[in-house]
Amino acid sequence: PDWTAIGVTAGVCVFAWFFVGLGRPIGRKLPFWREAAARGEEAEEATRQSQESRT
């Protein structure tokens, strides 16, 4: 296999994962990120509530 391509792909995936994780607090300051951040938080809260109601 082409390890360079695999390494680059893995690196991009990890970078994107970190960027998304850090992007939420940063995104609150950027107008075009706010909608996505708010939607993501709403979805997280909904999943948390459904998990809590199950137990």
Kindly report how far apart the N and C termini lie. Answer: 46 Å
Helical coverage, percent range:
over 70%
Radius of gyration: 16 Å
SSE string, helices as H and strands as E: HH
Summarize the structure.
The chain is mainly alpha-helical and about 55 residues long.
Would you kindly provide a written description of the structure presented here, covering whatever features stand out?
The protein is an all-alpha fold and 55 residues long. The chain is 89% helix and 0% strand. The chain has two helices and no strands. The protein has helices at residues 3-27, 31-54. It is flat. The chain starts with a helix and ends with a helix.
Outline the secondary-structure elements.
Layout: H1 3-27, H2 31-54
Helix pairs in contact: 1-2
Short key terms for the protein model shown above:
55 residues; mainly alpha
